[in-house]
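ok, trying the design again with the full structure, not the truncated one.
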């Protein structure tokens, strides 16, 4: 019986970073290293599972009940975010956390300080896993992967545990918004599912941002700076000007709850030409559509000022708010809440300030709320997770399965 911490550490050691610039599926072949490993581990535990040409792992644990109950699925993604390196991860394990600052020993002077991250104090006495400060950790979402596999291990080793049909899914490319674009919901075969992809212990989410990506290209005109007056168009400065036109208070660092934002995520350029990349988010569909209009108006302003063709923008839809797809099946949210209480966890129903595979799956006909995986500070070197939160998430999976088994 592999302990959940050992399983998690084994999974994060595999580099699975996805790549938005790639057009393949999965976007990086290295994701298949973990996906194939997971498929083999499921098979070894007696679970019928396969990995398809797109990298989707799907497995089934048959029902051991005499009556038919809904088939319930659990899904997690294997890729890590392009925001920070996911290679050569060196986790730090801090048992019996004392509430003080945790030095990230790979970078001199860097630490996780509860003065900046007060959430740490809620986990005094627990075992904390952090990065060493040089990479992300990969708890998003290898914690979810480990939790599902831990639950599968329990079910397969306890044949007396009563359950309906259970579906297991692992996906690539969630971090670049393409996690389930080729996911075959009918082949997966679940009536309902849950993604194990949330944050702090207790989080339960069935509504998320509407999301788009925007790429702004600025075409400048380079002239020798000694003779540039009235001739040069500096693409970097023009792009900075366009960025300054976006609402100041609608940036991630100034928003919370249901408030949306424009977020610049990368910039690359020279005087001659520059590219600015953004993500656009809002829970309200009306505000989401208006944000896209604002971006287009900023581009129009730049073109009026500097000439047609100076600025162009491509806006690509990523996912919609899943609330209207999940709410008609609210009993699956209630089951998750009850499963958390059974595990000694207080449910915290809240909107996702982000997205998850469950959003697109819900619109594909598979209602799919999101449950905590337990990690915090995703996508960067300050990422951390308590081992106890991972174990609680695994317990919640078992409890949900138990509750579905009792359905009439």
């Amino acid at each position: 019986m592999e302990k959940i911490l050992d399983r998690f550490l084994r999974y994060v050691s595999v580099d699975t970073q996805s790549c938005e610039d790639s057009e393949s599926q999965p976007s990086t072949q290295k994701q298949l290293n973990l996906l194939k490993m997971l498929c083999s581990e499921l098979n070894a535990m007696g679970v019928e599972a396969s990995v398809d040409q797109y990298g989707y792992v799907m497995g089934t644990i048959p029902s051991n009940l005499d009556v038919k109950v809904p088939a319930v699925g659990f899904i997690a993604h294997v890729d890590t975010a392009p925001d920070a390196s996911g290679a050569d991860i060196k986790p730090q394990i801090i048992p019996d956390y004392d509430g003080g600052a945790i030095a990230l020993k790979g970078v001199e002077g860097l630490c996780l300080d509860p003065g900046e991250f007060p959430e740490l104090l809620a986990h005094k006495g627990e075992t904390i896993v952090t990065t060493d400060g040089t990479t992300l950790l990969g708890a998003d979402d290898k914690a979810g992967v480990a939790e599902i596999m831990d639950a599968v291990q329990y079910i397969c080793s306890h044949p007396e545990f009563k359950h309906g049909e259970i579906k297991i899914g692992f996906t690539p490319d969630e971090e670049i918004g393409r996690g389930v674009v080729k996911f075959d919901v009918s082949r997966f075969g679940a009536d309902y599912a849950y993604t194990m992809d949330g944050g702090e212990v207790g989080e339960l989410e069935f509504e998320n941002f509407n999301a788009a990506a925007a790429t702004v290209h600025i075409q400048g005109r380079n002239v020798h700076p000694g003779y540039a007056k009235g001739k040069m168009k500096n693409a970097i400065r023009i792009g900075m000007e366009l960025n300054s036109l976006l609402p100041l208070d609608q940036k991630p660092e100034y928003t919370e709850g249901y408030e949306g934002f424009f977020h610049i995520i990368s910039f690359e350029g020279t005087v001659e030409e520059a590219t600015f990349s953004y993500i656009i988010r809002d829970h309200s569909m009306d505000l989401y559509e208006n944000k896209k209009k604002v971006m287009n108006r900023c581009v129009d302003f730049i073109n009026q000022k500097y000439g047609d063709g100076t600025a162009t923008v491509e806006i690509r839809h990523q996912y919609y708010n899943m609330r209207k797809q999940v709410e008609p099946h609210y009993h699956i949210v209630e089951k998750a809440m009850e499963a958390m209480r059974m595990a000694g966890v207080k449910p915290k129903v809240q909107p996702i300030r982000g997205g998850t595979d469950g959003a697109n799956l819900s619109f594909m006909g598979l209602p799919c709320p999101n449950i905590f995986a337990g990690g915090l500070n995703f996508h960067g070197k300050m990422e951390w997770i308590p081992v106890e939160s991972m174990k609680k998430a695994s317990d919640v999976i078992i409890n949900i399965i138990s509750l579905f088994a009792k359905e009439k």
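Keeping the full-length input from now on. The mean pLDDT is 96.
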